[in-house]
Design brief:
Metallo-beta-lactamase, Chain A, alpha/beta, 240 residues, seven-stranded mixed sheet
Length: 240
């Protein structure tokens, strides 16, 4: 069921929109953003179509095929070789960290801190990792250097997909981010309160909470009410 509900939260209008596209004005035409499921989304601009972390649970329906696929990590809610094989065409480039690329065929490897141009799109790999949370003492759910967040530049807009991460120094130091996708789910990443504090540090123009199953998104939105950041809450878990 598709719906749109706007609610004022201390001066912020929070939109809840199930599986519909957002458009963001950019040079050369609008950027289209489609939340699909959990950590999966599609970003399109002109001839460029980017699928992020496509997995079996995600329904791409009649969406256009990707020219680029970004993979952030090795966990099954981010890496699904069968889904990637189904979606990719002969001209599709798959971009992934080495740990994930080893489970794929013909992927382009990019490491934390690297910048590559793929099919005319600038892609920067940003570290994503846990600072303190893990399955047991002395262990982390996501070790530094294994996975990638990404900054993608399309139509002059810098779009940041954080991946599974806590509020790292690298995230807080980001500059000139137009659109950000920030995770918030315990125990694997961070709670909404920490995510909001991180957003305050790097001040994107627009932020989408994602990878948020079961979290209190009102807490996130309320914490950012006086920052000038456009908080866009969408339903990433609607029945498809």
């Amino acid at each position: 069921m598709r719906y749109l509900m706007s609610a004022a939260i201390s001066g912020i209008v929070v939109a809840l929109l199930a599986a519909a596209a957002d458009t963001i004005p950019a040079s050369g035409g609008n950027i289209t953003i489609v939340p699909i499921n959990h950590a999966t989304l599609q970003i399109a601009h002109g001839r460029h179509v980017i699928d992020v972390d496509p997995v079996a649970q995600a329904n791409f329906g009649t969406l256009p095929p990707p020219s680029i696929i970004l993979v952030t990590d090795i966990h099954p809610d981010h890496l699904d070789p069968a889904s990637i094989a189904k979606l990719k065409k002969a001209t599709t480039t798959v971009v992934a960290p080495a740990a994930a690329a080893g489970k794929l065929t013909g992927a382009t490897v990019i490491a934390n801190g690297e910048i590559k141009t793929v099919d005319g799109v600038t892609i920067e790999a940003v570290p994503m990792y846990n600072l303190q949370r893990g399955p047991a003492a002395g262990q982390l759910f996501h070790d530094k250097g294994r996975g990638n967040g990404y900054i993608v530049t399309l139509g002059g807009k810098r779009i940041y997909i954080a991946g599974d991460t806590e509020c790292t120094p690298e995230m807080k130091a980001l500059k000139n981010i137009d659109v950000a996708f920030v995770p918030m789910n315990l125990p694997y990443t961070m709670p909404p309160s920490e995510a909001a504090e991180c957003v305050k540090a790097f001040k994107p123009t627009i932020v989408y909470p994602y990878h948020y199953r079961g979290q209190n998104l009102d807490e996130f939105a309320s914490a950012l009410k006086s920052t000038g950041v456009d908080v866009r809450i969408r339903d990433w878990y609607a029945a498809k």
